[in-house]
Structures are given as C-alpha cells and as structure tokens.
C-alpha cells in the first residue's frame, strides 16, 4: 500500500492511501446518515441504519460541476484520487474514525504551499508542478499530474524550507441524524436572559460562519449579513447553499437570528457567511483544505471577531492550522479573533482541527446537563460528543431550535427547525456567547474571552475541575457576559 509523508504541526505525518475504484461500494451507516438524493430531507433517527452507497464516479462527477473543484480534480477518472488511511485497514484501531461513516480524507493531485520564494516556485515548476490559484496570505495551489507526484513535490519544497507545504485534501462527511422535536430549552439552560440584560450584541462585532453555505436571504438573517462569499463553488460573492444544504443556515441562526421565533444568542451582531462545503451528490458534504484555509484568512481580514467552525476530522493540514493561527493572533487589529471548533460526534478522541491547542473546542450537552453520549438520557443513541485534552467546554446540542432554509428546502418544509443537533449546534452557542462578550467589552483579547468562558462555565454533576470529557463545564452565557463587562 503506498504512503504519503509531509510535515504538519512540526512533525512528519505519514499516511497510507488506496486509489479510488470506479466501482460503487456499500458500507453500513454507523454514525452518520444523510438523504439518499438531493430532493430528500436530511436524515432523522428513523433511517440511521440505511446503508451508504459510495459511488466514486458519481462523486467525482458531482464535484467537477464547479470550476473551483475542476482545479483540484482534473478528470472524471476516480483513480486520479485516493482515500487516505491513518493506518492500513487491517490494523486500524478500534476507535479510529470510520472511512465511510464518520468521514473520509481524500488525496488529490494538488498541493498547498505557503511562504515560498520565487526560486522555490520555479523549482516546483521545473519538477512538474503548475500554479493554478494564488490565495490570501501567500497561499498558492499547485497541480501535479498524479497523486504519486504529490509526495515528490512536498519533499522538494520541504527541503527548501518554505513556510509550509501539504497535500490539498478533500474531506467528506455525512450528517448526524437529527433530533426529535422537543420544546426549546437551550436559552434558559445557559441563562441567556441574564446576558441580554447587559447586551444583545453590537453591529460592529462580526461573526463568521464557515460552513456549507447560509441562506442569507432568510428573513431572520438577511439584516445581519455584512459579507458573504463562496469559496468552493461558482457563486462569487454569495454564500447561498445548494438544495437542502441547511447545516450552515442552522448554525448561523443559533448565533444571529433576529425576530421572535428561534432568536439567536447575539441577534444584534453581524454575520460573515463563508461557503466552504458542498453536497457531493449523495447527501454527504465535502470541502477542500485550500478553499477552507483561504476562507479563514478572508474572514478575519474582513474583521470577523469570532469564527464558528462546525466541521472537522481527517488528516492534519498546516494550511488550515496556520490560517487559524493568523485569525487568533492577527484578527481584530491584533487582539485576535475567537476561533470556536466542533469537537465531533463520533464519541472518540477529538481529531483535527479540534485537537489544535489554543482554541475553543466545543462538545455537546443535553437537556439534563449531561455530556451527550450514546447512553445519555436524551435517547439519541446514534451519536456522542468527542473528548480529549483540547476540549474546552460543553454547550447545548440536542433538539435545538434555529433557522432553516426558507421555503420547502432544508430540514423542514418551513423556515425553521426544532431538530438540529450535534456538536455542530453546540459550537455556535459558544460563538454567540463570545460575540456577546465582545459586544459588552470590545477591548477583550481572544485569549481573555477563552479564559473567561472557562472560568464562568457551570461544572456538571460530580465535576471538580477540567476533565477530558466535560472540559471546564457547560456554557453559562449570563455569567460569561457579566464577567466580560467587568474585565479590565
């Protein structure tokens, strides 16, 4: 089995990979579920056991419908791509993220290089690479003639000590089956009314939602929008989603929705919508590292004070890590943007990028203030919150009321849903809290916000301090905003 090695996080990363077949494959759906076609609604608990049919040819064809993806995927031949494995399939650890259920990292014949000199780029071109796109903050996307060629270019540029060089991975994920409809509970649990006595937000505090698009025409969101852009498709300065891609709209609503039905936590703050993901034609969503890293840089350069990231999994990438680092250190004129990252829903150790230190990695809690697990009292036995040394805190993640794509598309036939769940829904709760904290005290640094979130979190039953399952406890936005206002 061939392997790929490249530097990331200061270490050599090595992964095996297997070329795509042109033959459809079927795997049991264990952790994720999705619609069987673009017209079908996102999955609920009733179809958790539905098998996933992965058709490589259909996948490649679906992605190549956009110009951006054609730069990464040069032909419709599936064997031009490969599946990346953390270990050979026969030796995969029992807690490893499943290839088809939880996520899939896909190698493309493209490479991200950052901080390269003119001579470095000439050396890469002489070795067969060609420049196909130049992005923000010195990022360049190179294309090569095959996935086997990726390793050679990475090794060449690593020896020349460029800022970073990494394969440009595609990342494919299913959607966690949704909750049943329950009464709204999250706002009362996190004491939002107490926070609103201090602030409902400030328009100059911008929150970026990086996701599969946001319905920026939604009546509860459109007045909040100050910037939007499509990084993976061909929609230019529009972050509108395709079809039933409602995930980003739901995340944005938790943070910023205006009006009396399913209001957001920080309804007077502003929204930056960055579309980084798209449907893959079978109900899963897919994004690539180059577009994601460029979107992160675009968001903080457009004055995002908070970045909400309800996605993750797969091999590490210095391109994304360095972009997050710039947001955290250079955003807000040097005060730093607060970066919130979902822990993941597979009840396994947190993986990339939630495993990065220095950020706000968010797990999920339920109505009874329990960590969300497959055996917690909410009954959603098809998912559990990930855990590990970088977990910062928990926030509500079951039966969440929020915005849906307006009209018949999305999760529900109306404009709202009461069934959003996962650490995807927990993360925007914390992002909204951070936005309120900065509205109450715009002089706070990103590190100060992070520290105050931990200091004011409510410890859960039996908790005496930070733990890898609970972090510092469950979000208390009332206490967090009060502490932020008093902070010097």
How many strands in all?
Answer: 20
Average pLDDT number: 90
Note the main sheet: 9 strands, antiparallel
User: Helix content range of the residues, please?
Assistant: 10-25%
State the end-to-end CA separation. 57 Å
Strand content: 15-25%
Coarse morphology:
globular
Number of helices: 12
Query: Class by helix and strand content?
Result: alpha/beta
- Radius of gyration, in Å, reads 21 Å
Unreliable residue runs:
26-41, 45-49, 88-101
Record the SSE blueprint.
Blueprint: E1 3-8, E2 11-19, E3 25-27, E4 52-54, H1 56-63, H2 67-72, E5 82-85, E6 104-114, H3 118-126, E7 130-134, E8 139-143, H4 147-159, E9 164-173, H5 186-189, H6 192-196, E10 206-211, E11 225-230, H7 247-256, E12 270-275, E13 278-279, E14 285-288, H8 289-301, E15 304-309, H9 318-330, E16 338-342, E17 360-365, E18 391-396, E19 400-403, E20 416-420, H10 423-440, H11 446-456, H12 477-486
Parallel strand pairs: 10-12, 10-15, 11-12, 15-16, 16-17, 17-18
Antiparallel strand pairs: 1-2, 2-5, 3-4, 5-6, 6-8, 6-9, 7-8, 9-14, 13-14, 19-20
Helix pairs in contact: 7-10, 8-9, 10-12, 11-12
């Amino acid at each position: 089995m061939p392997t790929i090695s490249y530097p990331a996080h200061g270490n050599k990363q090595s992964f095996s990979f297997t070329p795509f077949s042109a033959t459809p494959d079927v795997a049991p759906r264990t952790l994720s579920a999705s619609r069987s076609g673009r017209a079908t609604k996102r999955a609920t608990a009733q179809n958790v056991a539905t098998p996933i049919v992965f058709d490589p040819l259909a996948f490649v064809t679906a992605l190549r419908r956009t110009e951006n993806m054609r730069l990464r995927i040069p032909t419709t031949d599936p064997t031009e791509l490969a599946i990346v494995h953390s270990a050979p399939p026969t030796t995969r650890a029992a807690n490893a993220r499943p290839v088809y259920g939880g996520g899939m990292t896909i190698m493309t014949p493209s490479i991200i290089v950052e901080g390269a000199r003119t001579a470095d780029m000439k050396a890469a071109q002489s070795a067969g690479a060609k420049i196909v796109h130049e992005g923000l903050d010195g990022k360049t996307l190179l294309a090569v003639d095959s996935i086997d060629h990726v390793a050679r270019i990475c090794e060449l540029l690593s020896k020349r000590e460029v800022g970073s060089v990494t394969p440009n991975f595609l990342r494919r994920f299913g959607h966690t089956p949704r909750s049943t409809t329950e009464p709204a509970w999250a706002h009362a649990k996190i004491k939002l009314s107490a926070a609103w006595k201090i602030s409902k937000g400030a328009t100059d505090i911008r929150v970026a939602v990086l996701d599969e698009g946001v319905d920026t025409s939604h009546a509860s969101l459109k007045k909040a929008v100050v910037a939007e852009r499509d990084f993976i498709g061909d929609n230019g300065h529009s972050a509108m989603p395709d079809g039933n891609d409602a995930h980003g709209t739901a995340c944005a609503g938790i943070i910023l929705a205006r009006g009396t039905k399913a209001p957001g936590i920080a309804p007077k703050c502003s929204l930056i919508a960055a579309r980084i993901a798209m449907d893959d034609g079978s109900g899963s969503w897919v994004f690539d590292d180059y577009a994601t890293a460029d979107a992160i840089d675009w968001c903080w350069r457009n004055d995002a004070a908070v970045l909400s990231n309800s996605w993750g999994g797969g091999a590490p990438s210095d391109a994304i890590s360095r972009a997050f680092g710039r947001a955290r250190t250079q955003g807000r004129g040097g005060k730093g943007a607060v970066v919130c990252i979902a822990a993941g829903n597979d009840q396994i150790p947190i993986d990339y990028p939630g495993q990065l230190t220095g950020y706000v990695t968010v797990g999920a809690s339920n109505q009874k203030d329990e960590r969300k697990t497959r055996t917690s009292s909410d009954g959603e036995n098809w998912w559990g919150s990930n855990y590990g040394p970088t977990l910062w805190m928990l926030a509500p993640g079951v039966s969440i009321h929020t915005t849906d794509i307006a009209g018949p598309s999305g999760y529900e036939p109306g404009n709202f849903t009461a069934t959003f769940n996962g650490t995807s829904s927990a993360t925007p709760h914390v992002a909204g809290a951070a936005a309120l904290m900065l509205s109450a005290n715009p002089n706070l640094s990103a590190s100060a916000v992070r520290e105050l979130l931990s200091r004011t979190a409510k410890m859960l039953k039996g908790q005496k301090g930070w733990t890898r399952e609970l972090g510092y406890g469950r979000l208390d936005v009332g206490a967090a905003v009060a502490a932020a206002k008093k902070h010097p």
